[in-house]
């Protein structure tokens, strides 16, 4: 019965995707489900999302689900699309809630339905509105692509990497194509930035990457040397410490390139996502929950992935919280964020079982 409800919830969210900070109908549907179960909840109010609670006690165990969809081109049409799998995350957390309805709980359990994970700041918005207040243990869940986990396997923790984006502008001076000495060529600076980024080296034992992801210079005329240009950089690392070093090195390089080519380079970092800070205690509890709920043969090793998730802001902002995000193998392909991503829905009930068992074990530890 619960497996069927989980599938119905997924169907609804999948058919009604909403982009970041626009998840109003998703929030309304979640509130309707809480009313149906007779569970108290509180809307964030000025932004989409809600927190619901059951059980009693001073300590709070929390499960978090993200709600937003991506805006992307699907079969030639731009639209909201749940290729991120957040529709599945909501269904699994709701499934865990349903499984816990008749379980005596010695601690309070909070269900956080958070907006705007894809923007990278939804978790921060939820934290500012009290979502993490009093939380001692926090768990999340996410389906994993085929190359990380096969169908049925469950990882007790996901070690996401850190990521941040830089948006920059180069300001030099236009010149006639026949008189390059009279200007300051922004294209020269662009190529210097590209070459510099490719020459940044840290220890090969620390995964990291930086690359130009957006370039624009010049107009329709090919006989004008452009003095202005814009660019963007995607920087990632498996640890927060290495990402900070990478940011510092890139900033240092931009200053040097600006001086070398006689241009002004301005840049701002945005959409920072921290690397996972996985609690060994929380991961041990999820590990035991996997074995107890779906079998020891379904337990996988902890997943290390270069992707990011704003889930980890909860522990960055609240270091006392012990957290882990469960990874669920789902035969997911071609990959997360692919416009035609699909997965085996049997994984949804698996995820709900593991989350419910994790809550019970954490409450009775």
Structural write-up:
There is one protein chain. With 365 residues, the protein is α/β, with parallel strands linked by helices. The chain has two domains: 2-161 and 276-363, Zn peptidases (Aminopeptidase), CATH 3.40.630.10; 162-273, Alpha-Beta Plaits (2-Layer Sandwich). It is built from nine helices and 17 strands. Helix 1 (2-15) runs antiparallel to helix 3, helix 3 crosses helix 9 and helix 5 runs antiparallel to helix 6. The model has no long low-confidence stretch (mean pLDDT 97). One of its GO terms (molecular function) is metal ion binding. Pfam families: M20_dimer, Peptidase_M20. Residues 169-254 form the Peptidase M20 dimerisation domain. Mn(2+) binds at residues 84, 86, 118, 142, 337.
């Amino acid at each position: 019965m619960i497996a069927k409800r989980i599938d119905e919830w997924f169907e609804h969210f999948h058919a009604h995707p909403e982009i970041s900070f626009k998840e109003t109908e998703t929030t309304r549907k979640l509130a309707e489900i809480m009313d149906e179960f007779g569970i108290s909840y509180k809307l964030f109010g000025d932004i989409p999302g809600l927190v619901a609670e059951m059980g009693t006690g001073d300590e709070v165990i929390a499960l978090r689900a993200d709600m937003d969809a991506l805006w992307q081109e699907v079969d030639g049409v731009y639209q909201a699309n749940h290729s991120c799998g957040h529709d599945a995350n909501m269904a699994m957390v709701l499934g865990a809630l349903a499984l816990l309805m008749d379980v005596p709980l010695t601690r309070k359990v909070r269900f956080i339905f958070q907006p705007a994970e894809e923007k990278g700041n939804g978790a921060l918005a939820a934290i500012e509105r009290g979502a993490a207040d009093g939380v001692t243990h926090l768990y999340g869940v996410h389906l994993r692509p085929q190359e990380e986990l096969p169908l049925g396997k469950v990882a007790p923790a996901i070690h996401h990497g850190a990521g941040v984006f830089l948006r920059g502008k180069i300001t030099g001076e236009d010149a006639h194509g026949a008189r390059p000495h009279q200007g300051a060529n922004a294209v020269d600076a662009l190529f210097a930035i590209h070459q510099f980024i490719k020459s940044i080296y840290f220890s090969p034992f620390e995964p990291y990457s930086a690359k130009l992801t957006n370039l624009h210079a010049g107009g329709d005329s090919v006989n004008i040397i452009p003095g202005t240009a814009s660019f963007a950089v995607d920087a990632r690392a498996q640890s927060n410490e290495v990402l900070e070093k990478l940011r510092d090195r890139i900033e240092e390089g931009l200053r040097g390139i600006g001086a070398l080519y006689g241009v002004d380079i301005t840049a701002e970092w945005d959409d920072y996502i921290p690397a996972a800070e996985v609690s060994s205690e929380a991961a041990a509890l999820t590990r035991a929950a996997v074995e107890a709920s779906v079998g020891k043969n379904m337990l996988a090793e902890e997943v290390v992935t270069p992707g990011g998730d704003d889930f980890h802001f909860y522990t960055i902002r609240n270091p006392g919280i012990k957290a882990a995000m469960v990874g669920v193998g789902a035969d997911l392909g071609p990959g997360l964020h692919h416009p035609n991503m699909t997965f085996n829905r049997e994984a949804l009930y698996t995820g709900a079982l593991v989350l419910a068992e994790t809550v019970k074990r954490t409450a009775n530890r």
